[in-house]
Amino acid sequence: MSVRCNLFLSIASGVFDQKGKLLGSASSPIQIWKEKDCIEQSSTDIWHAVCAAVKSACSLANVAPEDVAGLGFTATCSLVAVDADGSPVSVSWSGDTRRNIIVWMDHRAVNQAEQINASNSPVLQYCGGGVSPEMQAPKLLWVKENLQESWSMVCRWMDLSDWLSYRATGDDTRSLCTTVCKWTYLGHAHMEQWKESDSRDMEACGWDNVFWEEIGLGDLVEGNCAKIGRSVAFPGHPLGSGLTATAAKELGLLPGTPVGTPLIDAHAGGVGVMESIPDEELKTDLTDEDAICHRMVLVCGTSTCHMAVSKNKLFVPGVWGPFWSAMVPEFWLTEGGQSATGALLDYIIENHVAAPLLSNRASSQSISIYELLNKMLLSMSHEQNSPFLSALTQDIHVLPDFHGNRSPMADPKSKGVIYGLTLDTSEKHLALLYLATIQGIAYGTRHIVEHCNAHGHKIDTLLACGGLAKNSMYIQEHADIIGCPIILPRENEPVLLGAAVLGAVAGKKFPGVRDAMKALNAAGKVVNPSSDPRVKKYHDAKYQIFRSLYEQQLSHRTAMAQALQ
């Protein structure tokens, strides 16, 4: 069984069988507060939603509490603050104690990230050369500098998925996934001592105390790092004695139900799809361990995460990692990303004057606005005798950095660009802008893939999951632009499946995460790139324009900074 915390809308829960088939799922809404760069949530609200979603999913799946073999949590890499009693501590300017979570995409700590990166600490080489304001160290520094009272009250700072697991089991052990990827924990400190099969809590020996002291957060490493994690474990390791009596009652499950050490949601998506390879796509000339290193998982939702693994550590400038055992145990993870993809498409559509009319039309046809736009683009391509659909955007180019560039430029100050605007406000104009934005996002992914391969990766196959992976236009444009086949999973909820893998491993149904992945992952449709050479030539040209838009922005930024000196 699995539980996932989405970014804005809801908690989702799913029940899977031992073949990885989804038996039932449910969701429950959650609150969010947004004020400029500050985005906040409530752990209390999220836990209540978790309980409601779990009960509903079990009911829909017709699964009794005693039939649940294990439970896994996954969530966004948001920062939770609680006091010694486990009560929420405000991280908000408002002082509202409900608001004790800084959401992952909150960008209040841009200046703090710059301060930390100026330290040139050795740990930063494992973050692509520098921390992002979306990571925890900058957020922690911001709270200390701006909310002194809250800072003094907090007993535990936790990633959201770790907090959910702690709330369920009472075990404060942290995941190698969360600590390594978002807290600068050096997971490879455990390489020589432990393997996943050892399955135990490990003393947290991977914190660099000097780093925390240098950036002004030395108080977090006092008491053997009690506030940020004294012990860590591989994903899927069983926590404590399973569900506490209190949590079990709230969730409608049995006390003692095994709970696996959690994953961040994108990483759960990776675990849920990375072994979803159809027989015809298997590389018979490669060993099993080599084959998985040729794949990249795109977890496409509000943002997109680009997950690739390797047996040896590969340093890719501007791309997070290498992170040891942060997703697939005993493999190094490289994690690229785009901070706004689904969120950007929503923004482009919702802020166009034609959006209300199209939304009403889509509703009357019982389809999404994206499906309607895709149909419109097909009609426009025929009407205009376009050589191929993508050519409709020859005069519109989009740099999708509306929420900064996470990878590979690692520039949170980068801005979005739309080139080719006119006075046109028609529905067809919105369709073209939508397509150009999809293409801009895909060029960004191509940039990440090429950059990773230039630094030692051998990525030639993509797997995609998440809400955007259900958009046929989005996936086909990515396949055409990157030039790789894209494999979609059989199940519609692979992030939930990844969390279920954790529960299955904790419940001893499989000896390890990789074994569970091979048993539970299953491939669906394979989307191949166009074989038309004109399509490749077109996208190669647009890709060069895409790259130039960022270079021009840097030049303009420098010119304006000099003008204001």
UniProtKB/TrEMBL annotation:
SUPFAM superfamilies named among the record's database cross-references: Actin-like ATPase domain
Gene3D superfamilies: 1.20.58.2240, 3.30.420.40
Keywords assigned: Kinase, Transferase
Residue stretches spanning the membrane: none
Biological process, per Gene Ontology: pentose metabolic process
CDD domains, per the entry: ASKHA_NBD_FGGY_D-RBK (cd07782)
Matches recorded under Pfam families: FGGY_C (PF02782), FGGY_N (PF00370)
GO CC terms in record: cytoplasm
InterPro entries: ATPase_NBD, Carb_kinase_FGGY, FGGY_C, FGGY_N, FGGY_RbtK-like
Nucleotide-binding recorded as keyword: no
Gene Ontology molecular function: D-ribulokinase activity
The Carbohydrate kinase FGGY N-terminal domain, residue ranges: 14-187
All residue ranges annotated as the Carbohydrate kinase FGGY C-terminal domain in the record: 297-506
Family: Belongs to the FGGY kinase family.
Annotated protein name in UniProt: FGGY carbohydrate kinase domain-containing protein
Organism: Digitaria exilis
